[in-house]
């Protein structure tokens, strides 16, 4: 652990099934369906200046992810919104990471667990930069993963489901062992898909190219960045991108709630510049996530 404090013994409280519990007491039993069979879905959200960016969209995706795994979270999106805000306030942070997670409980322990209770917990902690801040500005080094994103007929790829992250951890561990910061995964067809916790964008001749999200997460940050690029008059082309094309791109960046907009300097043997479009979108994203000053909101 970078700061020496394991995640199961930190200070503060965690929202757990509708009530706050001391951080160290927010536990599940080892016989929990979600732990054994990955019947769990989660979100990653960030608060800036005390306001959770795109909170409602994240919590809507959380509820949808549960439905894709065949369960209903026993709280509405609005209730989850309020719980996220309350947890952030309780922890007393302005800038923080918010992690809601929902999972199938312990009533049945076979693969089938049709009537297991569904639980929801929300934890908030400070997570300043997903990548080393100095590395981040120079552009991170990314490896090409051996593991691929699955066919949507193999797994519900639109769900932010814990099971899908097994592929991400395998890929990121392999990349880190080789000295890279992250891994870019291809999809089951061999097309460029996404990184282990972020979507990927490329720049060529003033236009942005990004893979069509037909078998991986269409990130909320991805959609935000596409909007920011279009607002600047930059053309955004969503299409199938083959790994053979990587040499033809001038810039590359990844984006996600945790990663924000992070330039990429290398993907395996391919090299990219930290260029103007990447820098512009890094700055535009940093501005977009900051809540408007209260006086400006009142005047609007
Ligand atoms: C695998 C993966 N792809 C993409 C993203 C980006 O999604 P978002 O921008 O909604 O955080 C994430 C982050 O949650 C992720 O884990």
From TrEMBL:
Catalytic activity from the UniProt record: L-leucine + 2-oxoglutarate = 4-methyl-2-oxopentanoate + L-glutamate; L-isoleucine + 2-oxoglutarate = (S)-3-methyl-2-oxopentanoate + L-glutamate; L-valine + 2-oxoglutarate = 3-methyl-2-oxobutanoate + L-glutamate
Pfam families: Aminotran_4
Metabolic or biological pathway, per its Swiss-Prot or TrEMBL entry: Amino-acid biosynthesis; L-leucine biosynthesis; L-leucine from 3-methyl-2-oxobutanoate: step 4/4; Amino-acid biosynthesis; L-isoleucine biosynthesis; L-isoleucine from 2-oxobutanoate: step 4/4; Amino-acid biosynthesis; L-valine biosynthesis; L-valine from pyruvate: step 4/4
CDD domains (alphabetical): BCAT_beta_family
UniProt keyword terms in alphabetical order: Amino-acid biosynthesis, Aminotransferase, Branched-chain amino acid biosynthesis, Pyridoxal phosphate, Transferase
Cofactor(s) it depends on: pyridoxal 5'-phosphate
EC primary class: transferase
GO molecular function: branched-chain-amino-acid transaminase activity
Its biological purpose: Acts on leucine, isoleucine and valine.
UniProt record similarity statement: Belongs to the class-IV pyridoxal-phosphate-dependent aminotransferase family.
Protein name, per record: Branched-chain-amino-acid aminotransferase
Native species: Hansschlegelia plantiphila
């Amino acid at each position: 652990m970078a700061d020496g404090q394991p995640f199961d013994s930190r200070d503060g409280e965690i929202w757990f099934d509708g009530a706050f519990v001391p951080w160290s007491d927010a536990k599940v039993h080892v016989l929990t369906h979600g732990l054994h069979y990955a019947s769990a879905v989660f979100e990653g959200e960030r608060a800036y200046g005390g306001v959770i960016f795109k909170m409602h969209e994240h919590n809507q995706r959380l509820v949808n992810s549960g439905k894709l795994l065949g369960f209903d979270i026993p709280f509405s999106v609005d209730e989850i919104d309020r719980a996220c805000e309350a947890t952030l306030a309780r922890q007393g942070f302005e800038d923080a990471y918010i992690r809601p997670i929902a999972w199938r409980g312990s009533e049945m322990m076979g693969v089938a667990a049709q009537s297991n209770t569904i639980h929801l917990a929300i934890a908030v902690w400070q997570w300043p930069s997903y990548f080393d801040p100095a590395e981040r500005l120079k552009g991170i080094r990314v490896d090409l993963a051996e593991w691929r994103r699955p066919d949507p007929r193999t797994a519900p790829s639109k769900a932010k489901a814990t099971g899908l992250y097994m592929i991400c951890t395998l890929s990121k561990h392999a990349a880190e062992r080789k000295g890279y910061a992250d891994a870019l995964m291809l999809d089951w067809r061999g097309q460029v898909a996404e990184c282990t916790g972020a979507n990927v964008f490329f720049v060529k001749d003033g236009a942005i190219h990004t893979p069509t999200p037909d078998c991986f997460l269409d990130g909320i940050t991805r959609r935000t960045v596409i909007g920011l690029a279009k607002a600047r008059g930059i053309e955004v082309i969503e299409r199938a991108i083959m790994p053979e094309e990587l040499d033809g791109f001038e810039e590359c960046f990844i984006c996600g709630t945790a990663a924000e907009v992070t330039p990429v300097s290398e993907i395996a043997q391919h090299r990219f510049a930290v260029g103007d479009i990447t820098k512009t979108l890094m700055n535009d994203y940093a501005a977009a996530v900051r809540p408007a000053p209260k006086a400006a909101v009142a005047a609007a």
